[in-house]
Amino acid sequence: MAEPLDPQMFDPVCPSSAMPIQIGDRWTAMVVLCLEGGRRRFNELRVPLRGITPKVLTQTLRAMQRDGLVTRTAYDENPPRVEYELTALGRSLLTLIAAARAWRDDHLPALLEARAAHDSSPAPSRPDRTAPPDSRTA
Amino acid sequence: MAEPLDPQMFDPVCPSSAMPIQIGDRWTAMVVLCLEGGRRRFNELRVPLRGITPKVLTQTLRAMQRDGLVTRTAYDENPPRVEYELTALGRSLLTLIAAARAWRDDHLPALLEARAAHDSSPAPSRPDRTAPPDSRTA
DNA sequence: GATACCGGTTACCTCAAAGATACCGGGATA
DNA sequence: TATCCCGGTATCTTTGAGGTAACCGGTATC
Hints:
2 copies of one chain form a homodimer. Chain A is an alpha+beta fold. Helices cover 43% and strands 12% of the residues of chain A. Chain A is built from 4 helices and 4 strands; from the N terminus they run βαβααββα. The longest helix of chain A has 33 residues, at 88-120. Chain A is elongated, with a radius of gyration of 21 Å. Mean pLDDT of chain A is 84; it is low at 124-138. At the A-B interface, strand 1, strand 3 and helix 4 of A face strand 1, strand 3 and helix 4 of B. Chain B binds a DNA duplex through helix 3.
């Protein structure tokens, strides 16, 4: 909670577009990971979530708050200070995220390989209707 | 593989809209579950996936095939017959789906409860800016 | 004054996924 | 001839997540 979040904690060449697993909406899992180490402020979260706009971060956090995944604490200070923290429920997602990451480590290369092979294969214009009866199109 | 798929195998009042976990696109996980018991034909898959349009099912299956999750076997018969089957990679998603289901069983009620409580709570027009310094808005 | 800070809000736009509906080929069957 | 079946396509429309840009209030500092 003390040290700032690593701006590089999420790979910009993120293979998430290839990941067949998604937790919540697009940013939820990353927010959970950002909050894993303790409470964080709004603008603190924006650092590793590069490219997220305040609007979308607000939406994400509100939705998570609604679902009981995070708490929001606003302090009547100046300048304003707001802190977000995982609830026990939100923390329970960590095991699921870990499972997803384990799957990724074990199987994502195979998926990407299959995809690359498929994409570079000669595109059949009328796929396999005329293929031999037992051919596999994979 | 022999017995037909249960049309009710996916709850129409599906809480998937509340599920913060998603495997692949909207239908991928359900397709994996449909194929868990063995190969299935196109129209066989449409039964439990009530409401899916052929276009979307085709898209889903093509994407899964591209990613090496399923194989597609077309037989030169009449009427045409096409069978889809899980690959080892596709089967590996089953553990992840099981983890998601376990999370659901353990935690989804709490999430829904939090959501209901949030939705029925008196909506603060100017949320908690004027709240006491240590109040939690959850 | 003018500016900066924090944590947003608001209005508007974009774009891809998903759905609705209709249609297709081609052999088998009637 | 006509119809059915299967596994899709083709085309249009809708929807909604997400992005862009501008602005806000209240205080403190310049």
